[in-house]
Design a protein that fits this description.
mainly beta, single chain, 20 strands, 219 residues, flat, five-stranded antiparallel beta sheet, Immunoglobulin-like
Length: 219
């Protein structure tokens, strides 16, 4: 809450006045990312629309947060690992990747694959009125989780001695070769694996920007 007081220099003719309190709401980061795994998420309209919307709607990958019952929601995800110099999270270093949706018993697995020449993670939520399809209207609360594989090796700095050369010839001093200390990096095996890091993403956007499912409009 912010406030202010005006104190006049001419106290004989003017009195002190307090401004009305003003409440300031501090913005909360929209992402729920836990370092070192940084995650990007969006939702697109997928193919496989059912009901009165088929087949006209559901043949594109348009990014949207608003869906109508019968449409297929595709979650697109990519992630990077800051502990590995921003390395892409893919099946080689990822133990688990999934989406938890409020009201859905089982998490939706994320699958990594090639999509028209670019690779990322995807998860599918089919909506509709038939048994087994998601049909809860309103905001869809979800959380994305990425779990890195346990780390059995680690890259560490090390020193090695290398003969000093000038114009391609080894330098000697008093009949002895002059050596330089060179820093390099080597991979060592860990006796005890390091547990894989866990990253999560949960939207904190305002409600009108969050993933929402609507009923089919009436004619």
């Amino acid at each position: 809450m912010l406030g202010a007081t005006l104190t006049p220099t001419d106290a004989a003719n003017f009195t002190t006045v307090d401004a009305a309190p003003f409440t300031v709401k501090v913005g909360v980061p929209v992402q729920g990312v836990i370092d070192p795994i940084h995650i990007y998420v969006d939702t697109v309209l997928g193919s496989g629309t059912t009901g009165p919307l088929a087949p006209r709607f559901g043949v594109s990958c348009a990014i949207t947060s608003e869906f109508i019952v019968g449409q297929t929601i595709v979650f697109r995800v990519y992630a990077n690992d800051a502990n590995q110099a921003g390395a892409v999270m893919d099946p080689t270093n990822t133990a688990k990747a999934y989406i938890e949706i409020a009201g859905v018993a089982n998490p939706i697995p994320l699958n990594y694959g090639n999509h028209s020449g670019v690779a990322f993670w995807t998860g599918v939520l089919k909506t509709g009125t038939t048994t087994g399809l998601y049909n809860t209207l309103g905001l869809i609360s979800f959380k994305v989780t990425m779990i890195k594989k346990d780390q059995n090796t680690k890259t560490v700095p090390a020193l090695k001695l290398v003969p000093k050369k000038v114009n391609g010839k080894v330098v000697k001093k008093n009949g002895k070769i002059v050596y330089l200390h060179i820093i390099y990096y080597k991979t060592v095996q860990l006796g005890t694996p390091l547990p894989g890091s866990v990253g999560t993403w949960q939207s904190n956007f305002t409600p009108n920007s969050q993933l929402t499912l609507y009923a089919v409009p009436k004619a």
